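haha ok so turns out i had the wrong file open the whole time. this is the CORRECT one, sorry everyone. sequence first:
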Amino acid sequence: MAGFRHLGRHSGFNGQSRILARRDNSLLADFAGRLGANEDCRYPNSRQKIKEISGKIHFVQIAIDGPVSSGKSTISKLVAKKLGLVYIDTGAMYRTVALHCLRQNVDLNDESEVCARVKQNRLHFEFLPAGENNDGRNCTILLNGEDISWEIRGKDATLGSAIVAQYDCVRSYLVKKQQGIAGGENVVMEGRDIGYRVLPNADLKIFLTASEMVRSLRRQIHLLEHGQNGGLAKIREEIRTRDKQDMGRDLDPLKKVPGAVEIDTSDMTIEEVVDKIIGLVKI
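then structure:
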């Protein structure tokens, strides 16, 4: 999340500029593939963590859940990088579905129409290494060959993703893809239902959170850095709305599951959060 960069100690991620400045995109591997195959940001040695349990290959799974702007993407990417695992941003998939429908003038509140688009138009998008795009992105995401990495982070796709994520047709389609990836890769997967719906048997489950104000500040900086205006009061209200949608929906609501380790990132640096998670990993 690029919004951490200029928030200083009030952001809840002290010293984040130093670690972001040291980001080495050259460590990201080559092209990762299409959705349903290898839609990931791949790091070196990702297959070195394979274990055999009862004669079967066991791929390492780390599930990181949490509300919007809690630091999931930033932390998950760095944990994956340090451990040599594959980073999967599941939220990008829901944002892409929303963007795809919006571009076709589909009313996102019309569940039947959204489901029809998902069924009729299999979305082909790719997660590529960030490469030379040093603009804070975690991956370069292509939808039918077009770079939509930042467009899906905009307000319309962000709010739209919360709507389409309520539909069983969308969730079933994407969850199946996510489980398929984790079945053949060592992953750090982040989202809102990873620990109980997507990877219920994950080796480690983390629930990241932060205060509403800290999350609002992060979101505001993120928007400003990419040329979008965002008044803090309005952003706080949007975050409240998103939280209510995520935690209150009937289908796969956001929640902390038994066995998950909760980490409040409000007053922690990026390094502290990453180190804490790595200290919990046993692989």
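Residues 2-280 form a domain with the Rossmann fold fold (CATH 3.40.50.300).
again sry for the mixup
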